[in-house]
Amino acid sequence: MLNAKRLRKFFLLIFVIITQGLSCSENEENEGQVDSSEPMLEFSSEELFTKPHADGNSFSCNICHARKEPSDDGMSRPGHDLENAYNRSNFKNGQLNTLLEAVNSCRKEWMNAPAFTPDQAAWLSLETFLKDLAVGKGSEIISYQIVSAPNDLTGGDATEGMNRSFHKVAPY
């Protein structure tokens, strides 16, 4: 059975996909985006986490991942927090063995961006950012189970759901 927290995260992700769009038009300005494709530039690791990458769509890392849980902004995100990701021994239920593989999985599957190379300046900057988020020496292995979406969505509290997530993403 899908628990309420995961169901909220699922719907939050769907909302983000709908409101953020899946790709940037080639004609759109890249204002507010980080050009992570240029290998010789110095990149702010903070910007690589918080802003969309110009070589991808309108997603940024912090759309799906908080620095730590619970997050400072109180928003529940669909991805695992990154507080100790640098120290994890594997990712995606053991399917990926390195942090670079995990980052590239997000870039290719969610951000519609090409994979970082191990010596790319943007990756090295983001890796430093993630290393700075690490606490202690080890990290627990995170496992999860993907379940089918429920057929019946009755029983939820729409007002509470709006209070917990929607207005924090798109206030109006």
Entry keywords:
single chain, globular, 172 residues, Cytochrome Bc1 Complex, Chain D, domain 2, mainly alpha
Question: What features would you describe in this structure?
Answer:
It is built from six helices and no strands. The protein has one domain (about 5-20, about 30-145): Cytochrome Bc1 Complex, Chain D, domain 2. It has helices at about 5-20, 45-50, 60-65, 100-110, 120-135, 160-170. The chain starts with a helix and ends with a helix. It is globular and about 50 Å long. By secondary structure, it is an all-alpha fold.
In round numbers, the mean pLDDT is 78
If helices are DSSP runs of H or I spanning 4 or more residues, what is the number of helices?
6
SSE order, as H and E? Answer: HHHHHH
Indicate the overall shape: globular
* Helix content bin: 25-40%
List strands and helices in order, with pairings:
Blueprint: H1 4-20, H2 45-50, H3 61-64, H4 99-109, H5 121-133, H6 158-169
Short description:
The protein is mainly α.
